[in-house]
Design goal:
Layout (H helix, E strand, L loop, with lengths): L28 H19 L4 H24 L4 H44 L5 H4 L5 H11 L5 H9 L4 H34 L1 H15 L4 H28 L1
Length: 249
């Protein structure tokens, strides 16, 4: 005798809910990916904000000088490494080195002046000969110098009267500013490294950014990606021309 098999009727309804529950995400996958990317970028900016300014400076320089770089790239036969190296050497020669030399000279002059002021404040100083022998105002300047700076503590009294600070705090501030020059040098070095890679791999990087931007902002990215570089390049070029004009005038 065969055992009777009990079959459940197909399509039988459950008391609660559907027999085949429909699974749907609370947040669509595309929206979740966008917000995750935003969080990753925000975390990167937070942890590496010290390198953000040099990278932005390198990108601005690359945007502004890209037409000239394209000509240089064509002149070297399309070799991106050689073209990027030559571009960095040109920037170092005509922009970075003169500014660095001027900054170093100004820093040394300020340090020497502050050192002289501290020594004069400690022991006092007589009126320099070239000041005392000036026509018309030499005698008056000699009198004022002797009254205010000829005795120990004279410079400190003047600084305290004018600014409320003392010469020691000013000297410590100058030393701190000189010590921060090393940090500026490292930032400049990182900027030049970032600029080298922006020149050499700029087109590939721009293509990757375009693909990413089209996935995040599919309807607006094309306009944004074309307007922003052109705006940066035009702004930098205009400011450079204005600065050159003001320097000539």
């Amino acid at each position: 005798m065969k055992e009777a098999r009990i079959k459940k009727p197909e399509g039988q309804q459950r008391l609660f809910g559907l027999s085949t529950p429909v699974r749907s995400a609370v947040i669509p996958p595309l929206s979740a990916a966008r917000w995750l990317l935003v969080l990753i970028v925000a975390a990167g900016v937070y942890f590496f904000h010290g390198f953000l300014v040099p990278v932005l400076a390198a990108l601005v320089i690359a945007f502004a000088s890209w037409p000239l770089y394209r000509r240089l790239l064509a002149a070297v036969g399309g070799n991106r490494t050689i073209a990027a190296t030559l571009a960095i050497l040109f920037i170092l020669t005509f922009l970075v080195v003169p500014i660095a030399l001027a900054g170093a000279y100004a820093s040394n002059e300020v340090r020497e002046w502050v050192g002289w002021a501290i020594e004069t404040n400690r022991e006092g100083a007589v009126t320099p000969y070239w000041i005392a022998t000036l026509p018309v105002v030499g005698d008056w300047l000699n009198e004022q110098w002797t009254r205010n700076l000829g005795h120990p503590g004279g410079i400190g009294e003047l600084i305290q009267l004018i600014s409320g600070a003392n010469i020691g705090s000013i000297y410590r501030g100058v030393l701190a500013a000189g010590g921060s020059a090393f940090g500026l040098l490292l930032a400049l070095l990182f900027m030049m490294i970032a600029l080298f890679f922006a020149y050499r791999d700029g087109e590939h990087f721009a293509g990757q950014v375009d693909r990413l931007g089209e996935r995040i902002l599919p309807t607006r990215w094309e306009r944004i990606s074309r307007v922003v570089p052109a705006t940066i390049s035009s702004t930098v070029t205009g400011m450079t021309i204005i600065a050159i004009g003001e320097g000539v005038v």
